[in-house]
Design goal:
- The protein is an alpha+beta fold.
- It folds into two domains: about 130 residues, Aminopeptidase, CATH 3.40.630; about 150 residues, 3-Layer(aba) Sandwich (Aminopeptidase).
- Helix content is about 25%, strand content about 35%.
- Strands 1, 2, 3, 4, 5, 6, 7, 8, 9, 10, 11, 12 and 13 form a 13-stranded mixed beta sheet that branches.
- This is N-acetyltransferase GCN5.
Length: about 300
Amino acid sequence: MSSVPDPSRATPDDSRFAVRRMTPPDVEAALGWAASEGWNPGLDDAASFFAADPQGFFMGTWNGEPIGCISAVAYGDAFGFIGLYIVRPEWRGKGFGMRLWNEGMVYLGARNIGLDGVLAQQPNYRKSGFVLAYRNVRYEGVASVDDEPVDGIAIADALDVPFERLLDYDARMFACQRAAFLRAWLSQPRAHARACVALDDGAVRGLAAIRLCRSGHKIGPLFADDLPIARALYRALVSGVPGERVFLDVPESNPAAVALAMEHDMRSEFETARMYTRAQPDVPLARVFGVTTFELG
């Protein structure tokens, strides 16, 4: 327990406040805080997140008690992503969040850094050099069974497709390669991943996954060369969870992705601002029908 009964007396300059790197159990705890904030993380997200960059998760503590966190995942030397930025309610407004923020930003250094932030926080992120690229919209709906095959589109279990092919396709849809994260993400014990494979040459033309969350199931990523492939992947995924709540995080700037959500009677829940410190990565947003995760990009 904290030695300060009233957090309002605490300051981030006090020696009892410290920032340390998270352990895997710490990431689990941070996702519990995220659930309390209504972010609805996946039940098995912690291991996948930690695999992306074990050095990129920071916990703020007061007298050893965790009071806040941030993730600052480095994807190689050129790109990073900020997420899981939380200070426990009773400790907010005292400057602890800024200490955590600075720790994450220093760790990511000169990389191009992305984040998905709530719209109201855009002015604060701009002060740190972030520029709005586009908005992502979370859609919610109910899964209905419709997994009839579409002519010319073959859907396979992604784990049956050579991983290097999946990795190459994912890297074209993301800002860079993320092998450790992708391997862990697609292999989550309560997730299902599907790929669209070309019938003629076996090339990957789409990749998607659905995972069990605190509430319902989230689809992410949903990458596809075109709307018919995205539709086939979506239906293949939700056919396994009929009647369950499903969520899809859609780049607003991809009208085909918005149309996919609309045709499945999904309704918008909230928006985030996708922002970067440098130029927006050269990602084909017309093929991004669902963001992998707001926490790691």
